[in-house]
Structures are given as structure tokens and as C-alpha cells.
Amino acid sequence: MTENNILGVVLAGGKSKRFGEDKTKAKFNNKTLLEHTLDKIKSKFNKIIIVSNNKYLKDYTTISDCIEGQLGPLVGVLSAMKWVKKNNYPYEWVATFPCDTPFFNITIIDKFIEASKDKDSLLYFAKSNKKRHNIFGLWSLELIEILEKDIVKKNHRKVEDWANKIGVKTINVNYNEIDPFFNINTKEELAEAEKILIKYRNDRI
């Protein structure tokens, strides 16, 4: 199933300071972390782009941040929105995913699709066990002007703060044992993910 009004976006523009090198290229279960995310979501969208200042895979469109300086995920989201507008694509939403969270379940995408049809908010984030996951987001293109203004003129950088300012609805994802939102920021966490992999079963891992 693909949804024509939602653009899939992988945010891969982080500096990977804690990892010590570009973690998107780190191998996990014989694939890079970036490939894990792309392989999971590719069946759900008719178009996926990667937001990064590095070029990765020839089969996917990669765009750079629209504002130089690696200023964080908000700029990545704005870059995706501006790319949609520049190319006159009919997408009404962008769905964002991190490149360092290999265990997430793709059912969150079905929930994003449902939310895009309900249209009772302009912004949705995934949530599990009382924790909000701000990079797993569904963002309406109607937010583009206020997002750009807040980034450029008001120096907003933190997704958490900006979302609270705008207003955001959460989509709950339940789990009992292994956290599907376990993310990898360090090589120690990559090693921990290898241990998790032994006992974790996922439909797209």
C-alpha cells in the first residue's frame, strides 16, 4: 500500500558526534543503519527522499539542508517541505523517520496514513510508554511558512519545543519487552542492538 499524499523522508543529517563517524553507514545485520530504515518504509510510499549533506544511494533522491550549518531536524523537515513546493509535487504531508532506529515497526506508517485522513491536527508524533518520539512524525505542508519563520527569524532549533508551541497530537505505539524505538547514538549502543537482535523479531528486520 502506498499513500500518494504523503512523502516519506529519512532525516540523516546529524553530525554523529557521539558515534565518532557517520553512523548512517554503520553496518548492522549486514545492512547499514540507513538501509534498514529505507528497506522498511519503501513499500509504504510512492516517493522517499533522504535529507543529508552527504550523497548515499543512487536509487533514492538525496537533498541537502536548505540552510547551511547542520542546524538540526527542524531544518531537515523544512528542507523536505521546500523540496515538495519547489518541484510542485502534490504531497500534503511529510512523514519523517530517523536513520538510527532499526527496530521500529512499520505499523506506525499505517497510523500516520489514518491520521492524515482524520486531519484533526497539523502535526503528529509517535509515542510509547509515555515517551514522545519526535523524529517519527507526520507534518502537514500547511506548517511550512510558520516553520521557516520560526527557524530563520526566531532561531528555533529544538523539535520538542517547537512542537509544543505549535500543538502536536501523539499516536500511541504499545510494546511489552524490547523498545522498538531503541536508537543508536554510540558504538556501545550498536553493540547492544546486536544483542537485542538475537531475541527480537520484527516484520522487516
Could you describe the 3D structure shown?
The protein has 205 residues and is an alpha/beta fold. The chain has a single domain, classed as Alpha-Beta Complex (Spore Coat Polysaccharide Biosynthesis Protein SpsA, Chain A). Strands 5-4-1-6-8-7-9 form a 7-stranded mixed beta sheet, with helices on both faces. It has a two-stranded antiparallel sheet with strand order 2-3.
Q: Whole-Å distance between the termini?
A: 19 Å
Provide the number of structural domains: 1
Q: What is the helix tally?
A: 6
Shape: globular
Helix content: 25-40%
What is the second-level CATH architecture? Answer: Alpha-Beta Complex
- Low-pLDDT segments: none
Q: How many DSSP-defined strands?
A: 9
Structural class computed from helices and strand pairing? alpha/beta
Task: Quote the average pLDDT.
Answer: 89
Report the biggest beta sheet as strand number plus sense, adding barrel if it closes.
Answer: 7 strands, mixed
CATH topology: Spore Coat Polysaccharide Biosynthesis Protein SpsA, Chain A
Strand content bin = 15-25%
The H/E string reads: EEEHEEHEHEEHHEH
